[in-house]
Design goal:
- The protein is α/β, with parallel strands linked by helices.
- It has 2 domains: 2-79 and 190-262, Rossmann fold; 84-186, Hypothetical Protein, Haloacid Dehalogenase-like Hydrolase, Chain: A, domain 2 (2-Layer Sandwich), CATH 3.30.1240.
- Helices cover 30% and strands 23% of the residues.
- It has 9 helices and 14 strands.
- The chain has an 8-stranded mixed sheet with strand order 5-4-3-2-1-12-13-14. A 6-stranded mixed sheet has the order 8-7-6-9-11-10.
- β4 (67-70) and β5 (75-79) form a beta hairpin.
- α2 runs parallel beside α9 (253-262).
- The relative contact order is 0.17.
């Protein structure tokens, strides 16, 4: 068996902390011989705040499957970026479909972020590795493991579907936001694809994977895994594909489930 869990809204509480109960359940699961993998849309540069709360670092499939990361060696095991020609075509289609869209990219295997000057950055966030650029063209000249699209506050499902249609056949579009942020990855790159690569590397098959998630970017992961588990606060589309629904991220849902597997 292998445990694969999303972070925001699933393992993490709303304030981005991990409860002591959850930390203990993760630690006991690993000690019992069951691998645990973090599967997140977040970049490598953001994960330090998670690792600082864990007793031991866990491998991670980052930026929606585009990067597989070994935190022990601080090593990227695999990266699947959007190439500069594809980025240029993505930007062209986005400009035609949503002229007011603002863009950002995760580069250097998601250790750095670059964004248009007008692109909104959370004021309380860590600015290390984040740089504003004057022109969209400055975002497109090197491979990017993720491109981010904002155009004010939008219905996240509708906006993601619109962007996905515009980029059909070229790139993947998904979301994990409540405000309309769309996340774009290279064609075929999803959380499922990234985790499948990792599992093959260590000899685990999909049927032996238990996956936890809460948002649409988790759907490929949950439909791929042998058992799909949604937290109570999950998006309706996630609950629809889940084999079961557990307690929310605020109620230690993942920890309670892991404890049941451990027999305590």
């Amino acid at each position: 068996m292998l445990i694969a869990t999303d972070l925001d809204g699933t393992l993490l509480r709303d304030d981005k902390t991990i409860s002591a109960r959850t930390v203990d359940a993760l630690d006991r699961t690993v000690a019992a011989g069951t691998p645990v993998v973090l599967v997140t849309g977040r970049p490598i540069r953001w994960l330090r705040r998670v690792y600082d709360q864990l007793r031991s670092p866990l491998p991670a499939v980052c930026v929606n499957g585009a990067v597989v990361y070994d935190p022990v060696k601080d090593e990227v095991l695999r990266a699947s970026p959007l190439s500069p020609p594809v980025l240029a075509e993505v930007a062209r289609r986005l400009a035609a479909e949503v002229p007011e869209a603002l863009l950002a990219v995760e580069v250097v295997d998601s250790r750095e972020m670059r964004h248009q000057i007008e692109y909104p950055i959370h004021p309380d966030g860590d600015r290390a590795g984040i740089q504003a650029v004057a022109a969209v063209s400055e975002l497109l000249h090197e491979p990017a493991v993720k491109l981010l699209v904002r155009a004010g506050v939008r219905d996240p499902d509708e906006f993601s579907a619109r962007i996905g249609k515009a980029l059909s056949g070229l790139a993947e579009a998904t979301h994990s936001s409540l405000t309309g942020l769309v996340e774009v990855s290279a064609a075929g790159v999803t959380k499922a694809a990234g985790l499948a690569w990792f599992c093959e590397r260590i000899g685990v098959v999909a049927e032996d994977v238990v996956a936890f998630g809460d948002m649409p970017n988790d759907l490929p992961l949950l439909t791929w895994a042998g058992r799909a588990v949604a937290v109570a606060n999950a998006h309706p589309s996630v609950k629809a594909v889940a084999d079961e629904v557990i307690g929310s991220n605020e109620d230690d849902g993942v920890a309670v489930y892991l404890e049941s597997l451990l027999g305590s």
